[in-house]
Amino acid sequence: MKKESVILKNETGLHARPAGELAKLAAGFKCNINLIANEKTINAKSILSIMAAGIKTSTEITIECDGEDEDIALEKIVEAFNNKLGE
Questions:
Q1: For residues 59 and 8, is the Cβ–Cβ distance under 8 A?
Q2: Of 42, 47, 59, 67, which sees the most CB atoms within 10 A?
């Protein structure tokens, strides 16, 4: 299992558009990908789970990847968060 923490930089939090981008990116990997924020564990491949978590800007999020392509998955998801998930 690989994990890394990031700070959400999106001013409006993880609303529908960035949540969709994140879920789409995560779905492209075989490994399990979870986000841990505000003491909740969220399936990163589920847009509904991401939106239901209500993650606000400046929240620390731990990304956990576990499986055969965990290294590249973690690298790409951290990169996406650093690029504000396309916003």
A1: yes
A2: 42
- Which CATH number do you get for residue 58? 3.30.1340.10
Question: Annotated active-site positions, please?
Answer: 15
* pTM for the structure as a whole: 0.94
Question: How many structural domains does the chain have?
Answer: 1
Give 30's DSSP letter.
S
34 phi and psi angles, rounded to 5 deg: -125, 150
Q: What are phi and psi of 37, to 5 degrees?
A: -150, 140
What is the SS3 assignment for 81? helix
- Residue 64's DSSP bridge partners are 3, 34
Question: Residue 59: which domain range?
Answer: 2-86
Which amino acid, 39? E
Residues of the chain with pLDDT under 70: none
